[in-house]
Amino acid sequence: MVLAYSDTDTGALVFSQADAPPSSAQKDRIDGIRVFIGIATSGRPTILPSTIAHLRRQTRKAQRIVICATKAADVEGLDEADDLKIMYAPPGLPIQRNALLDEAGDDDFIFFFDDDFLTDPHYIERTLAIFSAQPDVAITTGRVLADGARGPGLSIDEGEAILDGAIVSGANGDPSIEPTWNGYGCNMAFRLAPIRDHALRFDERLPLYAWYEDVDFSRRVAPYGRVVKINAATGVHLGTKKGRTSGKRLGYSQVVNPVYFARKGTFAWRKSLLSILRNMGMNVARSVRPEAYIDRRGRLLGNLLGIVDVIRGRAKPERILDL
Question: Start and end of every Glycosyltransferase 2-like domain (predicted)?
Fold first, then answer.
């Protein structure tokens, strides 16, 4: 096993030689802590087993992997085991993730992965190294080697080939960490103590896919510790299109959710407006010849409906349920 730990002066990850046993001090940094993995899932039963298989290959395994589904069909063919529990909650990413937070109880760290995120074998070990060596870190997120959400999506075989290639080439070994604004929802980890101490939860006013729920929650945890990106904690986000929100609903959320966050104080108004303009601009520019895998015209319609609701003073995240 290759042990990763953090240099307390530089923040860089240091790797012990494979043939050299880790010192007791190094072991203490990653042992004796309880790790909980939470996966909210909906409509992807054929992909979920591959995601779990990669988590079971971790060099530092979690005590528990818990899947929060919305119905039995979400986990069809998947069986519970000593290391795997299946639970249910009403649909909606914040609701499901809050159920996972409740289930985590007094564990030390919670790792949230999307149901289509494939992890490098050292992901958890390298993340715990940073948490252990730098107690002022509250949130970490890994480096996404490829993100199918930004394109037509990746197959499981494509994702595994990218992971294997990164391991062979050493591209998964970048020892640096860097400050970042938020955890990326497909792969992010939190120190649970401040979440418990301050009764923090994902905002359940954000229904369904919950545009920017990861950013909002990260910014509410951020006052209690640093947010960092760990470049050696890598994975591939398949970006599967099944189970996604409709174009019109997503477009509405692209406008209304940032306004909602600015009003409650987790976003600066400038950041919210830039986000709205960036997404609307992209939808306008590409609606003439839209990508086959993105409903650009639906998103643009949703954007316009959101602007009208903001002007009329009736904008609220929950309205996507009526669209």
Answer: 39-141
Q: Strands 64-69 and 35-40, how do they pair?
A: parallel
Please compute Rg for the chain using Cα positions.
Answer: 20
Please report the DSSP string for 48-89 in residue order.
HHHHHHHHHT-SS--SEEEEEESSGGGGTT---BTTEEEEE-
**Rounded-to-integer distance, Cα 284 and Cα 300, Å:** 7
H and E: helices and strands count for the chain:
10, 11
Q: Is 150 helix (H, G, I), strand (E, B) or coil?
A: helix
33 Cα distance to chain centroid: 21
Question: What is the residue extent of each domain of the chain?
Answer: 4-237, 247-313
Mind listing the pLDDT tens digit for each residue in 149-203?
888 899 999 999 999 999 878 878 888 999 999 999 999 999 999 999 999 999 9
Residue 217 backbone class (left: φ over 0; alpha: ψ -120 to 50; beta: rest)? alpha
CATH classification code of 4-237: 3.90.550.10
Contact criterion met (CB below 8 Å) for 1 and 59: yes
C-beta separation of 22 from 3 below 8 A: yes
Distances (CA, A) of 219 to 108, 182, 183, 205, 262: 20, 7, 9, 16, 12
* Relative orientation angle of helices 247-264 and 296-312, to the nearest 10 degrees: 40
More confident residue, 169 or 303: 303
Helix ranges restricted to H, 143-268 = 156-169, 192-197, 213-221, 247-264
CA angle 215, 226, 173 (to 5 degrees): 90
